[in-house]
Amino acid sequence: MKTANLDYILKRGVAEILIKEELLELLRSGRKLRLKEGFDPSFPDIHLGHMVALRKLRQFQELGHQVVLIVGDWTAQIGDPSGVSVTRPMLSAEKVKANAETYMKQFFKVVDKEKTEVRWQSEWFGKFTLADVIKLTSKFTVAQFLAREDFSARYAAGRPIAITELLYPLLQAYDSLAVQADVEFGGIDQKFNFLVGRELQGMMGQRQQQCFMTPLLVGTDGAHKMSKSLGNYIGIDEPPGEIYGKTMSITDSLILQYFELVTDVPDEELEQFKKQMEQGTVNPMELKKRLARELVTQLYDQEAALKAGEHFEKTVQKKETPAEICLGTRSGCAIQDYLVENNLAKSKGEAKRLILQGAVDAGGQRIIDANWIVPKDVIIRVGKRRYVRST
User: Fold this and answer.
1) For the whole model, what pTM was predicted?
2) 3-state SS string over 168-181?
């Protein structure tokens, strides 16, 4: 293993590694390591924020190690009965399976499918009895869990914490035990849960997993971490034109972070970009175009990146209407329904927000009424880049 390559993998796009010296020892041992990545199938889509850790998994796969993808199907069916967490709705087994299939399709756009072992939580939790749950909870104290930042803040403020919520870190920790994880990957916000897994493994006589944590990618709004619920995300399965266009919309302050965390542009070039931006010798738009090309090429191919760039220049920079516009579904319905039917909005709620924000145009007219009836043969534009012609 080349030291330079290993240094690159362990430094670039890394927030913290616990414990780095132990991980280095494992890597140098020649053992094929088991790399754990779990996901909550409450929602099926992956965005660039998730991709930061997924790219690390791919790099470790290229060193010959084994990724173990855990589908959280058992916990997803429990949801969050307390109603505190909007990210843990209770799901049916069918919905979990559908979400998991969508997720894995996107996951394998980044991670090598042939070098991935897929495991479902229900393999071990499906056999759990009440006695097993009690044994698991006996391993830790309430005081240990109240040390977690969000729990301690809510406890101090007198806000409720459901017992269910205290169980989730334990269940995630047991996943590590079940698959004999050597390293667990994820965002820095998962540090507490990773450490619980490490401790549980030690209690049960297993080698303790290493915790490999990546930074949280800031969303396109430049203010909060990338999140679908905040609408500041770039989905990895979105059309090339959408990925390109959304990348062009990020604030200039995010350019270098995006290059570092989700592209393979060499560090030397990134240093040049930084100097050019500090000295004002480069137009940030040109760097964004390079970034957008890198991302679309990575998720699709060079041809898709080229077409997306041409489309952006024509429709956004030159404000031209595209020569080829997809035909939409039936006319004669309310615009908010039309946007959903034609995949221009994920839901009626999102459609209404787009309309209220003035982002919807029909035949050159800005639409401000969600119940406006779509006529035949009119070009509907959403935002600056998405078009459809009504039929």
Assistant:
1) 0.81
2) HHHHHHHHHHHHCC
In a domain, 343, yes or no: yes
Q: Could you give the 3-state DSSP secondary structure of residue 360? A: strand
- Alpha carbons within 13 A on the beta-carbon side of 341: 18
245: nearest Cα among 298, 311, 303: 311
d(CA 186, CA 216): 10
Of 379, 383, 244, 242, which is closest to residue 323 (Cα–Cα)? Answer: 379
CB atoms within 10 A of CB 177: 17
pLDDT digits (tens, 9 = 90+) for 211-260: 999 999 999 989 999 987 788 899 999 999 999 999 999 999 999 999 99
Tokens (6 digits) for 321: 């209407």
Q: Are 307 and 286 in contact (CB under 8 A)?
A: no
Distances (CA, A) of 229 to 86, 137, 225, 342: 9, 32, 11, 21
Q: Are 284 and 222 in contact (CB under 8 A)?
A: no
Q: What distance in Å separates the CA atoms of residue 71 and residue 100, rounded to the nearest whole number? A: 7
User: Looking at residue 321, what is its pLDDT?
Assistant: 63
- Strands ordered across the beta sheet of 379-382: 365-366, 360-362, 379-382, 386-389
Alpha-carbon span 54 to 38, nearest angstrom:
11
- Total domain count, the chain: 3
Please measure the distance between the N-terminal and C-terminal CA atoms of the chain and give it in whole angstroms. 59
With respect to residue 90, please indicate whether it lies within any of the assigned structural domains.
yes
Domain that holds residue 140: 3-214
- CATH number, domain at 69? 3.40.50.620
